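Structure tokens please, single chain.
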Amino acid sequence: MRALPRPFLALASAAAIIFLFSGPVSAQPAQSSIGVFDLQKVFADSQRGKEVKKALEADFKKRQDELKKKEDEIKKLSTELRQLASSGSASNDDLRKKDENLKNKVMAYQEQLAAYNEEMRKAEEQKMKPLMDSVVQAAGELAKSRGYLVVLETQRSGVVFALETMDMTAEIIKAIDKKK
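Here you go.
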């Protein structure tokens, strides 16, 4: 029999502990002391999240276009090299030179792509920080007003199920867009 993965065991243990200490089962559901929200949905659906995404896209559009051109050029050179090699009309020396040229372009492209991705990550982090700070503040305020002891982000915390009454996503979106 295969052993269960550690995250599943941890989740099952947590569920068992919650069940054991939850008290007697009654007809009325107990008030939850846990709140959840979907950070990706907050970023995607909030006005501030949309503005950050639009600003990032505008900042990096030119570089994306340049990288796309280089990628297309590499694809074209690769296709030409394959056709030339299969036709047998080029000398081995010509094929070697074209192959070396292609490899150099691929390496340069990969370096530019890595630099672009790192630059994009840093810019995202910088532009998202104020939004993330607002999300944390809004979640904290909502948690206090609802009497939650814990608030979990659904994607990263491994939440498999949560009652709709525990979901604070819509209210967080309203709160951060209001503070705009």
